Amino acid sequence: MTDPMILSDPANDIDSLRQPLIAGSEKVQQQIIPQLAELGNEGLDVLMEFLLKRRENPATWIDGKAYQVLYNSDAPQAKEFLRSCFPEGIVPLKSECGINYNSLQQLLAVQDFQAADRVTIEKMCELSGPTAVQRKWLYFTEVENTSAVDLQTINNLWLVHSEGKFGFSVQREIWLSLGKNWENFWPKIGWKAGNTWTRYPNEFTWDLSAPKGHLPLSNQLRGVRVFASLLSHPAWLKNPEK
Q: Which segments cross the bilayer (predicted)?
């Protein structure tokens, strides 16, 4: 049901959407962003203004939604705005190991979750060194020694570009809420049904209709010991912005 604050007629004046976009709840903002996207250049201008005002704060998934509209627009002013104000993307691509996360941000910005999932495991292996890159999967000890800053970057990219549904921290929150019970955890995130594991790739859901915590899969992380190391990593005990 559309929030009563929102005027659904696309002919409504831009100013009637600007204020609730800035001051409204996430639910209101989520509904307004696509309305602005349909209003052409003037709507894009409001989204650019919105992102500029919020640039000094850590990006949320609402920022991600606004960014995605601009990123996927053919409008020259949107492309120039992103080039000048957000050259790396909406999420700062911090790395202690010199890893480039541009490709991951670009895939997530266009909601190509399956390709983003493949890149995520590639980056995780890259963080662990050339042997892991060649092997294409991780030992639990390698996960334990992974840079917290880099894990937070990967996690923030997934969170911001998935309406807060996907990410390691989301999976950790669900895992903890279930008392770290793996048998309850797997079906909760859609990785298992009864005694049957979800088969990669076709049985997984590669869009936002998936259960919360469904992605990133990073298929090689399904082993309990490796995945437990990831969800227990010190990265999740720290402020991601520090």
A: none
DSSP per position, 204-220: S--STTSPTT-----GG
DSSP string, 7-61: ---TTS-THHHHHHHHHS-HHHHHHHHHHHHTTHHHHHHHHHHHHHHTTTSPP-H
What residue type is assigned to position 113 of the chain? F
Its CATH class, for the domain covering 15-85, is mainly alpha
Q: What are 34-76's pLDDT values in tens digits?
A: 999 999 999 999 999 999 999 999 999 999 999 999 999 999 9
What is the Cα–Cα distance from 175 to 196, expressed in whole angstroms? Answer: 19
Neighbour count for residue 38 (Cβ, 10 Å): 9
Which CATH entry fits the domain spanning 102-237: 3.40.50.2300, 1.10.10.1770, 3.40.140.10, 3.20.20.70?
A: 1.10.10.1770
Whether the predicted pLDDT of 143 surpasses 90:
yes
